[in-house]
Amino acid sequence: MVTGLSELAGRLRESLIQQLFTEFREDPDVISFAAGAPDERLLPVEVLDAIIAETAAGYGRRILQYGPVQGFAPLIEALLPVLHRRGVKVGADEVHVTTGATGALFAVCAAVLDPGDRVLVSDPSYGAGTGFFSVFGADVVGVPSDREGMLPDALDRELRRAPTKLIYLMPTYQNPTGANMSSQRRADLAGVVARHGTLVVEDDAYCELWYRAEPAAALYAHVPEQTVYIGSLSKSVAPALRLGYATMPAELLGKVMQIKQFLDMQTSVLTQAVAARFLARHFAEHTDRLRREYGRRLAATCSALHAAGLDDFSWDQPDGGMFLWLRGPRGFRVDRDLLRSAAAAGVLFVPGSQFHVDPEAGLGTLRLCFASCDPDRIAEGIARLASVLRAARRGDP
Q1: pTM confidence score
Q2: What span, in angstroms and rounded, lies between the C-alpha atoms of 148 and 178?
Q3: Which of 44, 180, 256, 321 fits as disulfide partner to 206, beta carbons 3.0 to 4.6 Å?
């Protein structure tokens, strides 16, 4: 038996959601709206296969060697146009390639957070991000949000209430709600941030997945001197590449790269080289395809929800991203019994309580990931879900 585990390890808890995913993962009849992952059928296998062979031939054994901590120079150059389109006007020396967006977030937390530091997040917020801060011993506080995300006045009140080390935001197609901030909301939030001088972490993982119009420029564009901007290729190319990227104030960037040397030394040069060629040659065409396919799935999910007759439930059709946020009527609760009933009926989702600092605040909500669901099974999946929800409303076992 292992004894003497750290306080950090003691803060970790086994997830009921993960238990259910493991239990039902191999069941071909289960229709899942749960996992926030790209559809495997849309991953660019053939293109990447050719690029991998070409990369190995072009670089030889060097491509399997250690590389620079900051990142592989050709990938950084290929990322600059992606960043510039988001209003993140930086040079190559200001960009850091990370092992996934989570690698960037972990290193930033290690660089700035001490136990007891106060971190503000949207309420609801991306659960893994919130969990990161708790693992570092931070005091995580939820800030009220609306359909555009965090409310500037509410943020201002919280910043006046107590010293705050960090603000975490996902302004573009937020996970879990799909909320997308207008340019005005971003400017208003940036104004609050600038007045208080607090560091912001902007997670922009879903920015390429827009279905109506391209999103407003990143929050970073309004307040670059106080913003850590984090992007990812997991949703727009492939999760297994494990590639994220970040830019931040120079002093912090230096510390983050020092931490990375201890964390994982460097991100895989092979996957960086492959990604560099993919971005230069295929990224625009591939993301266009993703937007078409995921946009159809979003429309199909909303149509199925309307057809299901869930008159006392509500939702907003997001402008992009991978998620739809379903709100139940007053008194409705998503509990363990409902989760298991849904799994037994062959449909999976994530309870909204997983995304709130106070789980009690989100008991009447649930998150649906439409992007990873088989498009031919969306209508059936929503019908199964609606049947379970109606039974729960009636109080049926």
Answers
A1: 0.95
A2: 9
A3: 321
